[in-house]
Amino acid sequence: MSEIAASTVPASIGPQARRLVRVLAGLVNPAVKLAAGRRWMPVVGVLRHHGRRTGRAYATPVGMRPLGGGFVLPLTFGDHSAWYRNVLAAGGAAVTYRGATHRVVEPRVVGWSTAAPAFPRYERLQFRLIGIRQFLSVRRASEEVTA
Predict the structure, then answer these.
(1) CA proximity to 89, closest of 58, 122, 45
(2) Range of the structural domain that residue 44 is part of
(3) Residue 95 has pLDDT above 80, yes or no
């Protein structure tokens, strides 16, 4: 498996673009959360994590797909996403995917060749077009947990 250290990922967007994305996410995420994680929604799940400094609970809609005994999540903004840093610091989180909530552990960054089999052709094409080459891989700690 091709593992990549997250710290070696260059920032793909500048600080102004990152601020714009943050504002847009604040507008779009509440609507996306209504569908994310539902049984009929295979593209977006809900990542439940806690702030690494504040301990505050977050529910973040994130693209994800099952792979092996866990899930892979595209690192759209490299190691700059707060959710990514929080999951890494905690050593795990919970994901709600297709109506079931799972505790996940052992977060690690993997490359394209490891994650690509989890995604359908149209998503793989999108990732290549926008330059996503890194993914967060997490392993299910147990089958299903109560929300």
Answers:
(1) 58
(2) 6-140
(3) yes
* Nearest Cα residue to 20 out of 86, 87, 77, 88: 77
Q: Where are the beta strands (DSSP E) in the chain?
A: 44-50, 57-63, 65-67, 70-74, 92-97, 100-111, 134-140
Q: What is the pLDDT of residues 102-125, one digit of tens each?
A: 999 999 999 999 999 999 999 999
- Total count of domains within the chain: 1
Q: What is the CATH number of the domain that holds 31?
A: 2.30.110.10
pTM > 0.90: yes or no: no
108's tokens: 């690690």
Closest CA to 55 of 96, 89, 25, 23: 89
What separation, in Å, do the N-terminal and C-terminal C-alpha atoms of the chain show? Answer: 32
